[in-house]
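STRUCTURE:
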């Protein structure tokens, strides 16, 4: 199996909901469930890998407070080397809605200060040459993102294929954010984007055509994956062939982190050198399981299992 690493944002998520209708200012509503859990794209991916028993390395940072120490404890040895910044830990409050969608309220906290120096220090001792490194939370890790070129060079020198899932920009998909993302993808061998991100980056409404266009700005042999939620996922392989996977019908509890969990399943299968369609199916299966269970579970459902 090829080595795996994830580089990016780990923070605290407080999930509450579902909320409907949205409350008026100055009022209070009661919701059915709440959950304090590991969050952030890198954190969600790593947590899924831990649940699957997949070997990996993670580079991240934390704030110097009780929430940072809690995050570090949740990851055990994986988080032992995370540097603590003299800021409060980033916290996201996620409000779920009856249709499974969500609204986030997020503090900046420690994430903007995560750096290439931090990343290199944590990963230099890791034996992940020839593997895959997932970069995520790009629009939250300001200092690291400014040094992406140096990071790409460092990964290239070790024969590591970079995979990119930027997440949603706080100020939306402006021209500048689209241009930056296209430039980063020019250095990546894998794109792991959702449908809206893919079509917006290219300006083409059809996700398959958008994925094909996105592939043209990436290195030869790149893979473009488009995550389509309840519609499953598609990929354009290294040879330009289209691969698809459908999603099972499940009762959705919350979709927070679904794309990150998909990334975990997909990359774990890719690291095992499974066929691309099987990699898509692995990502869809674990994401579908995660969004339909409370407390969240990741292992494939067995016949007769209760959610």
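SEQUENCE:
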């Amino acid at each position: 199996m090829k080595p795996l690493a994830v580089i990016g944002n780990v923070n605290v998520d407080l999930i509450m909901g579902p909320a409907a209708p949205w409350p008026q200012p100055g009022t209070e509503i009661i919701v059915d469930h709440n959950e304090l859990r590991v969050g952030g794209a890198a954190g969600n991916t790593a947590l899924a890998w831990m649940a699957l028993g997949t070997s990996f390395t993670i580079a991240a940072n934390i704030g110097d407070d009780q929430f940072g120490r809690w995050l570090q404890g949740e990851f055990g040895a994986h988080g032992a080397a995370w540097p603590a910044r003299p800021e409060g830990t980033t916290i996201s409050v996620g409000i779920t809605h009856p249709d499974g969608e969500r609204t986030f309220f997020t503090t900046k906290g420690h994430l903007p200060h995560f750096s290439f120096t931090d990343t290199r220090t944590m990963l230099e001792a890791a034996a992940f040459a020839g593997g895959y490194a997932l970069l995520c939370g790009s629009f939250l890790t300001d200092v690291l993102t400014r040094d992406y070129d140096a990071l790409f060079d460092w990964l290239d020198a070790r024969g590591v294929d970079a995979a990119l899932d930027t997440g949603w920009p706080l100020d939306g998909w402006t021209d500048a954010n689209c241009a930056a993302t296209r430039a980063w993808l020019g250095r990546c061998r894998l794109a792991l984007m959702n449908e809206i991100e893919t079509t917006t980056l290219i300006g083409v409404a059809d996700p398959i055509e958008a994925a094909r266009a996105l592939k043209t700005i990436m290195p030869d042999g790149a893979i473009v994956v488009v995550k389509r939620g309840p519609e499953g996922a598609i990929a354009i392989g290294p040879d330009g062939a289209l691969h698809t996977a459908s999603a099972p019908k499940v009762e959705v509890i919350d979709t927070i982190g679904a794309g990150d969990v998909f990334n975990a399943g997909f990359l774990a299968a890719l690291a095992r050198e499974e066929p691309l369609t099987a990699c898509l199916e692995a990502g869809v299966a674990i994401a579908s399981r995660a969004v339909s269970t409370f407390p969240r579970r990741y292992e494939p459902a067995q016949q007769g299992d209760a959610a």
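REMARK: The chain has ten helices and 14 strands.
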